[in-house]
Amino acid sequence: MDGPSRGLRSAICFALVLVLPAAQTPPTLHSRDEWRVVDKECRDVLPAQAKIRACLNLLSDRRLSTAYLASITGEISSTFQGLRDYGNAIKYKKIEIERTSARQPSSSGDALPASFGAMSLRYTELGTLQALNRQTNFGSQSDEARRGATEEQNSYNLALQYNPMNYRAYRYRAEIRSQFCDSASAAQDMEAAVRFAEQAGDQDAARDYKRVTLGACVPAWRRE
Q: Which end of the chain has fewer CB within 10 Å, C or N?
């Protein structure tokens, strides 16, 4: 996609104003009804361009509590990803993370590990979007590619802060570390990826990781 249409760009700008400050509006629907609205007026809408517009419009729907903003922005991000518009996919994934972070539980309890696992997954998804954006839009040895790779690695670092057993984040970070010419750290990450995949019972991933040949060092990316 060459970029969103003028109407879609306007909708995006308007939605950003609504999503980022997100006024605390009391919900006027029951939770089950709210999910039905999200499904009908966002998730189930086709085609993709119409879906993005519908989801953006739903962000301003005062029938819904602000708890649903993260889910809607995540849907927008994945739709842009399907259109290979990785810049907007990254933008809305970051908004999703921001909105979810604001609702993280502050006390210990059963919900805490699950919420941390979900945040780890979101940061892993952000990293893969940044990788796709880098590979699609920048020369492999350019300064822009290096900056994109640095942002990608930071996303995996955050994913592992939330879940130190996230084997996919280890695998993806190993690739970046290898391209940054840090072969020792890359090897350690691959070992961790295999170990935690096996512990999680994902034998397919563990077997695939054992066969991985990491990307070659990019001299232009070599850290000082």
A: C
